[in-house]
Design goal:
Helix content: 10-25%
Number of domains: 2
Number of strands: 15
CATH topology of the largest domain: Jelly Rolls
Structural class: alpha+beta
Shape: extended
Bound molecules: magnesium ion
Largest sheet: 8 strands, antiparallel
CATH architecture of the largest domain: Sandwich
CATH superfamily of the largest domain: Exo-inulinase, domain 1
Strand content: 25-35%
Order of helices and strands: HHEEEEEEEEEEEEEEE
Distance between the termini: 91 Å
């Protein structure tokens, strides 16, 4: 008899445990569900009314309205980095005819040789043409011989509209402040990662820039935005630019027109650039 009871209690206990566990699990699931906000329930008529109102306000397009204009047919570059057929070539390695010196307004005086241009301590240069929203491709190399440190090593910059700097720097094992390293929006946004190649190696930026918009009294009504790929790696993901990228002041917007030149910085280092092209957006 004792033997039978012992057997039965061994059998009962696990059953009890399972029942308790089920109760706890079931109870907590029910509790979690009860805590979740309930989706409001709308009748189909209510949904239709909201949709119609949004249409009247110009907030919606009919779901079945197809675009009426065929996208322009272009020829892409033969390989990544090559200019597509609708690009404006800013520098093809031969001459600086599309650039001017910002020091004296005359011809750009940087050295051109072997398919690249090189900073010669003659001041910043800028494109003669001006751009607003654009896609820019530019290749650059810092000096193979490493000199200086931090902001003093391989410094230049690509300034959209002549004002908003995507930093160019030798950031290969060269610590500096994070929002001042290569591919930063200078003193505003550090890059998402450091995708730098070694000194002397060619690197690429692919930049998508949306120009700021100002109202009639000069207030910025839409800040500029920028996306940057450094050597094919996304490093700035449509970030907002807070204003001009000064090194010694907080950023602020100074009203300007809808277009501006692309400026390259002479920061005293013999930086090289090649294969520069832009597409207006
Ligand atoms: Mg710079």
């Amino acid at each position: 008899m004792m033997h039978f009871i012992a057997k039965q209690s061994r059998f009962r206990n696990p059953l009890l445990i399972v029942a308790v566990v089920l109760l706890i699990v079931g109870g907590s699931i029910a509790l979690t569900r009860a805590q979740q906000p309930q989706q409001p329930q709308y009748t189909p008529q209510q949904v239709e009314e909201v949709r119609k109102k949004a249409m009247e306000m110009g907030l919606l397009r009919p779901a079945n309205e197809a675009p009426k204009k065929e996208p322009t047919v272009i020829t892409p570059g033969a390989k990544p980095g090559d200019p597509p057929s609708d690009a404006i070539i800013l520098f093809d390695g031969k001459d600086l005819s599309g650039w001017k010196s910002l020091r004296d307004g005359g011809n750009a005086k940087w050295l051109v040789q072997d398919g690249y241009m090189q900073v010669t301590r003659t001041g910043d240069i800028a494109t003669k043409q001006e751009f607003g929203d654009c896609q820019l491709h530019i290749e650059w190399a810092t000096p193979a011989e490493v000199k200086g440190e931090s902001q003093g090593r391989g410094n230049s910059g690509v300034f959209l509209m002549g004002r908003y700097e995507v930093q160019v720097l030798d950031s290969y094992q060269n610590p500096t402040y994070f929002h001042g390293q290569a591919a930063s929006v200078y003193k505003q946004h550090a890059p998402l990662v450091n995708a730098s190649r070694k000194p002397g190696e060619w690197q690429t930026y692919d930049i998508i820039f949306t120009a700021p918009v100002f109202d009639e009294i000069g207030n910025v009504t839409r800040r500029a935005r920028v996306t940057v790929f450094h050597n094919g790696v996304l490093v700035q993901n449509n970030v907002e630019i807070y204003g001009e990228t000064w090194h010694d002041r907080a950023p602020a917007y100074i009203p300007h027109g809808p277009t501006g030149p692309i400026k390259l910085q002479d920061h005293g280092n013999p930086m090289r650039f090649r294969n520069i092209w832009v597409r207006k957006l």
